[in-house]
Amino acid sequence: MKTYSTQEKYIRILAVILTPLSISQWLSISINSSIIRVISLTLCLLIIRYSFSYSLLFNSNYKIIKYYLIWVFISLIRGIIIAQSFWDYNLLSIGITCLSLPLFVFYFEKPSNCTFFLRLWIKYCIPLFFLIIFISPPESFHFYLAPFFFWGAFIPILPKKWKIISITLLFIMIFISLEARSQIIKSIVAVSMSFAYLYRNKISSKILKIIHWGLYIITVIFLYLGITGHFNIFKDSISNKNDETLLKNNVTSISADTRTSIYSDVINSAINNHYILFGRTPARGNDIYISFEKTTTSSSDQRHFERHINELCHPNIFTWLGLIGVILYSLIYFRASWLALYKSNSFALKILGCFTAFHWLFGWIEDTNLFNISNIILWMTIGICFSNKFRKMSDTEFKQWVILIFKYKYHK
Asked: Are 281 and 92 in contact (CB under 8 A)?
């Protein structure tokens, strides 16, 4: 057991180290991307070893994750075969870490792992944040402060000090930069969940189940309408007619349509290159026709211009793993949210089930699946929804667990 405890310790330490690195693209100081790559790959290997140590990969509760990981492994082998240059292998290493994020479900199924990780994050990352605010712009805050979107859903049961801190930071993220749409949406969702938890005695589980199903159904409807050309929610209802002018002048409107061109490129690339079902492997990206800057996969080849990673989570999965991968990836979200809504004893888990369903929807709009603290927190939430230990908790027991995060003494 000592070996297992050491593995758990290294995993949470490396995950916490990833926090400042998660906003490296905004920092005024340069950070070598290879550092992030090495940490990410090491984390993946440690969690795989941890999963085998506890036989979690063979647990029937995680069957859908196992199927997904098998498909990722097959795509990795395909990527190794089709790679033609150092740059392809470089992109493959990035893509495979991004696709490995569901591994965190195995680590965070254990309540003590969640507790020790969040406590370590609080100890080191909160003080560091007061330095970060001077070297990083406000729109990056939601990547660094991702844990607040988790416990921000349970503000009513936080210790008084952390209630004040959480409310303050969430409202700062809502109002500090109106151009940071993702930051605003995530903060509003966290505050909304907190109100739902506060008035849990007046909200039936039936209402949460309706919200849960509604998030999935509405998303599928809008996807169908958008892909078939009947109705584009980004362009026909949200986008402002002046957005094109604003974007040309490097000014981002809160209603700007920056997604239609990405979907167009991703879909056209898959059709033109015949990888709709199986994907192009994580060694490649989608061809660029109309969106963003153009970069080639190699300076020596004559391929189409490609973009390896877009801001949208699920379209990235589609490019790398095809329709099969998107279905398997989506079923992980659905299974987690369904277990939380229908197979848990607490209102708190039911809220997290809706939170997971929301993030499946949001993955079609943003939620870039990079290996960073924001996605680690998302997959921690999904891991909690899968966990038998968490789902057996009553609301009183879940409250006690949340409070333990902010205490210094904790026993397994």
From this structure: yes
Residue 338, number of CB atoms within 10 A of its CB: 19
How many angstroms separate the CA atoms of 334 and 50, rounded?
25
Report the distance separating Cα 370 and Cα 141, nearest Å. 16
**For residues 220 and 286, what is the distance between their CA atoms, to the nearest angstrom?**
22
Q: What backbone torsions phi and psi does residue 135 show, to the nearest 5 degrees?
A: -120, 10
Sign of CA dihedral 376, 379, 384, 386: negative
What torsion, rounded to 10 degrees, do the Cα atoms 184, 348, 383, 141 define? 20
What residues contact 87, with CB distance under 8 A and at least 6 apart? 297, 298
If you compute the radius of gyration of the chain from its CA atoms, what whole number of angstroms results?
Answer: 21
| pTM summary value | 0.90
Q: Tens digits of per-residue pLDDT, 28-65? A: 677 777 888 899 999 999 999 988 887 777 777 899 99
Q: Which amino acid is at 118?
A: L
